[in-house]
Design goal:
Length: 388
């Protein structure tokens, strides 16, 4: 149906119904020019099919056409169909014409109506009441059309705002997913790097002791197995978090500073002498700070286990109402060549953890060859999206 407008049959249904009723009405009347009346009504209804495409042209022509009936021999006081046609014309001019252009079409149609009444109205008396009648006939459909247009514009604006809100929410969701992936990546790095490093050092020690002190070698190998089980447990917890969208599996909570003595003891079992000093309360820290502080200490001790030449590390945690400060130090070189070079990923992970809370991370070597690291995590105003 290429001859139909964009709205298809829906746009043609109303004019078609009006045309059918108009034809039936004209067939029941006596003093009318039947062919002319039917022709004008059919033309007017046909023009209304395209009322949405170009309302100023098609609706105005439709209104003018139907009110030519008295000029061509069919008095307006006989048929009633011009009334619904004029209502559709005025409504469409208000609803579909841009801006206030529809008023131009309404004014033209009104002039034609008044011309038909005053000039071709016959002997019927006319007066100012005819003007009032025409205005009362055309004004309500026009006002209704304007209101409908305004509501449609508001609905479009709401739909656009909803679309922008949905896009913004999708952006927030994507950022949250990326942040969660980064958090899990840091967790996995901390767990695996610590555990594997400890196991490598312990296994090397056991290899040296297997012939000279078998019992001690057995104890070291047991420590290796314990470290491996611990790594598997924490890795499994992280995988559960990935799979558990509703946080239903909380059987193994994330580690915090309350497990710091246990962490230090594991490093001591691995052959690292750790001097731990705690200053201030550590039992009321925000969950994200608590976890990040634990991981920072774990990473620092892992690096000390791999690179400390005197197998000694010092850890000091200082808690105040304003901030938690972590300071670690170990002898990183005494003139001998290091056995391996670090990738620097541990320091990057620590820097990311500190930056989440708006803290600071400082590290470097002193003149006497000690590697010192200081991480400061603010506590006074924790972020709403803190790491957990």
């Amino acid at each position: 149906m290429r001859w139909l407008p964009a709205g298809g049959i829906r746009d043609a249904a109303l004019p078609a119904a009006i045309a059918v009723v108009g034809v039936i009405e004209l067939l029941t009347l006596e003093d009318v020019n039947l062919p002319t009346g039917i022709g004008l009504e059919m033309i007017a209804c046909g023009l209304l099919i395209w009322r949405k495409n170009n309302p100023l042209v098609f609706c105005t022509l439709a209104g003018v056409t139907v009110f030519l009936m008295p000029i061509l021999g069919t008095p307006l006081d006989e048929p009633t169909i011009p009334i619904p046609i004029s209502a559709v014309v005025c409504y469409s001019l208000a609803r579909w014409a841009a801006g206030l252009q529809g008023l131009i079409g309404v004014a033209i149609v009104m002039l034609v109506v008044l011309l038909s009444i005053y000039v071709f109205g016959g002997d019927r008396p006319t007066g100012f009441g005819e003007v009032v009648f025409v205005v009362a006939l055309m004004a309500p459909p026009y006002v209704l059309g304007r209101l409908t247009r305004r509501l449609a514009v508001q609905n479009d604006q709401l739909a656009e705002q909803s679309a922008r809100l949905a896009a913004y929410q999708e952006t927030i969701r994507a950022e949250a997913v990326a942040a969660e992936r980064a958090r899990i990546a840091r967790e996995l790095h901390d767990v695996i790097a610590h555990s594997v490093s400890a196991m490598v050092v312990q296994t090397s020690a056991a290899e040296d002791l297997v012939h000279t002190d078998p019992e001690r070698a057995v104890r070291v190998l047991r420590a290796v197995a314990s470290t491996g089980r611990q790594a598997l447990s924490e890795t499994g917890r992280l995988l559960q978090v990935i799979r558990d969208e509703h946080d239903e599996l909380g059987l193994h909570p994330a580690p915090g500073l309350d497990r710091l003595p246990e962490l230090v003891e594991r490093f001591r079992d691995s052959g690292l002498r750790v001097d731990l000093e705690l200053d201030g309360p550590l039992d009321r820290l925000p969950a994200g700070v608590d976890l990040s502080a634990y991981r920072i200490v774990q990473e620092a001790l892992t690096n000390a286990l791999k690179y400390a030449t005197d197998r000694t590390a010092a850890v000091r945690l200082t808690s105040t109402p304003a901030a938690l400060t972590i300071h670690t130090a170990n002898q990183s070189t005494d003139g001998r060549t290091r056995q391996a070079a670090g990738t620097g990923l541990g320091l990057v992970g620590m820097a990311e953890r500190v930056s989440v809370f708006g803290g600071q991370l400082q590290h470097g070597r002193t003149e006497d060859g000690r590697f010192e690291l200081t991480a400061t995590l603010p506590l006074a105003a924790p972020l709403a999206g803190e790491l957990v």
